[in-house]
Amino acid sequence: MNTRTDSVISVQGDTVDMICVRHYGYTAKVTEQVLAANPGLAALGAQLPVGTRVKLPAIAPVPIKNIVKLWD
Questions:
Q1: Cα-based angle 3, 29, 35 (whole degrees, multiple of 5)
Q2: What's the pTM value of the predicted model, to 2 decimals?
């Protein structure tokens, strides 16, 4: 589990969702927490400007649910 606040610098084409997937592995309920930790980030638009620092708060991992497959 991530126990400290990290930060990343956005690259060309980055969105908050893409950063969340790269850092946390998922976006469910994480994007809102990242936006709350970064006041004004949402106002920058869907694609972040290159070089934007994004704080990544410590968030408990989401348990993985069993996936049902229709075919093996």
A1: 75
A2: 0.75
